[in-house]
Amino acid sequence: MDLLNNIIKWFNEHILISSMLLSFISCFVRMKGDTIINKLSQGFLCSTLTVGIYFLLINFFTVNENICLAIGSLVGYIGTEQIKEWIYKVINKKIEK
In the 8-state DSSP scheme, what is residue 33? Predict the structure, then answer.
């Protein structure tokens, strides 16, 4: 039980690193049947996206740190493939008009 408390304490003290790690793991687990290289690259991109969104919101929009972390983690959880599909849909709608 002491080990679990230490792990939880570490996650609370290193919230940005833990959110990157959780984004990476969730993306890695979601990609069933894909190659290990694709899983690792998508996991890395998701965790990088989490940190990028976090710093973007903190530095340019002066949003509360906890909200930035939640939004960054959400974007990282959604994943790069889904975000890419949304962007393509928006661009295609603009081109069709």
Answer: T
